[in-house]
Amino acid sequence: MVSSFFLVCIFETLLLSSISSENVSTGDEKYEKIFKELNDLRHTTTFLVQQNKLLQLKLAKVEENDSARCEKSRKRFASVNFLSVFFTVENNNDMSLGDNQVIAFDHVVSNEGSGYDTSNGIFTAPTNGVYVFHVQIRGNEHHSCLVDIVKKGNRLISIWVTSNTSDSSMAVVRLNDGDKIWIRNSHYNGGGCVLDDLSSFSGFLLYQ
């Protein structure tokens, strides 16, 4: 790109050549006015060139600061250990349950982070965070079930199903490292609960 200062120099050269060819004296008022305007233009161009250099320096400083901030953010996020935690389990066969019995689903579909223990049916949070849990229950023929999602022994929500019906529910809770969640058969009118093999329990870490 041709600079403004360079264009002014070309214009000045052409003007001087024109004046010389016409053999006009430098005292002519008309050309004195042109010389004055040309000189003012040269000063303006010089000023603009200086301002452009200052703006380029400021822009370079801004880009340097942005780059430093991006690098700082990258290092901060890189130092955070984001865990992947999720599971889905179901039962392979019908389950006959007693009052307040923990429901241990024996078929593992997924268990990222190894939070769910099939031996006792309990999920243990491997890190602090907000977790989402979902349970789907289907009652076997001639049986009704009242099932709870439990946190450290305290009921969070309940699900009620009757013979050959199903229902589901979800709980979103904040857990600390080591907190436990499980599903239990709650006592209901002294009747036994039998779940069929279409029941399942899932959960995942939403964010830390």
From TrEMBL:
Gene3D superfamilies of this UniProt entry? 2.60.120.40
Q: Which N-terminal residues, if any, form the signal peptide?
A: 1-21
State the name under which the record lists this protein: C1QL
Major location (coarse): secreted
Q: Say which domain of life the source belongs to.
A: Eukaryota
Instruction: List each copy of the C1q domain by range.
Output: 80-208
Enumerate the Pfam families for this protein: C1q (PF00386)
Q: GO cellular-component terms in the record?
A: extracellular region
Q: Which UniProt keywords apply?
A: Secreted, Signal
Task: Kindly give the InterPro entries that the UniProt entry links to this protein.
Answer: C1q_dom, Cerebellin_Synaptic_Org, Tumour_necrosis_fac-like_dom
Q: Which organism is it from?
A: Mytilus edulis
Q: Where in the cell is it found?
A: Secreted
